[in-house]
Amino acid sequence: xxxxxxxxxxxxxxxxxxxxxxxxxxxxxxxxxxxxxxxxxxxxxxxxxxxxxxxxxxxxxxxxxxxxxxxxxxxxxxxxxxxxxxxxxxxxxxxxxxxxxxxxxxxxxxxxxxxxxxxxxxxxxxxxxxxxxxxxxxxxxxxxxxxxxxxxxxxxxxxxxxxxxxxxxxxxxxxxxxxxxxxxxxxxxxxxxxxxxxxxxxxxxxxxxxxxxxxxxxxxxxxxxxxxxxxxxxxxxxxxxxxxxxxxxxxxxxxxxxxxxxxxxxxxxxxxxxxxxxxxxxxxxxxxxxxxxxxxxxxxxxxxxxxxxxxxxxxxxxxxxxxxxxxxxxxxxxxxxx
Length: 338
Description:
338 residues, 12 helices
């Protein structure tokens, strides 16, 4: 275990390096921070921190910089989440409340996160598998063709055209719409299959094939595996940090183009708390020089998806964690009210 004084020295090194982009020396630390000890003692503490792998010396400098291990200890023990100011909170709320639909909410969230953190923003669309049915609409397009519209509690709308095995009249369609919504409205997607399995039996024999076809389309929509969608923005922000990435930012950009990689980075939506993955904690090699700060968002206190930012390991962790958490809270409120 590090002593309290060495933890303070590590905190000061991280703060100075993030703020100045320059390796930090013992003289600068004693001048900028009230550590209450001599430069010689600080040098000894820095030597101990280096021996234990929390800081390292770049080849071209006498100063030290934090390692992934040092940033991890800083985030876990030393960094509080920086709260947003009242004007910042109002600006977030006003910007997001102007959204007209779910796509607009996600697009505004990406733009806002990228601007607030000056990093790459990634927002996952609310997952169907973790959503609740708000309403199912059935519209007649032709005697044997129906439009199925599924509306979720998160504002997501899915449309499917159903080709029926036989003509289906307006009265029968209205009956199916009413019976279907009485069973599935405000129910979790996972519960829907068992709730509708005996529904065809409530209809005349000649209509059961069409009812079964409509229900099959509905169930297919609920369990589609390609439903995980992402929106990304602010990639150009990485060019500001060229010297933070060894050799080139190309591996980072290539990794960001892979949706599967990004979904793994954000982590499981069920984990609602702020998660920070630093450097080599990111399994994808192209992202070993980055950190990912993510958090779950959703309505009713339950996370239905994740959002977060990707940037260099030399980032303002307290500020980034605060921004990500605040934006997620407002997005959840908007979904709950939509």
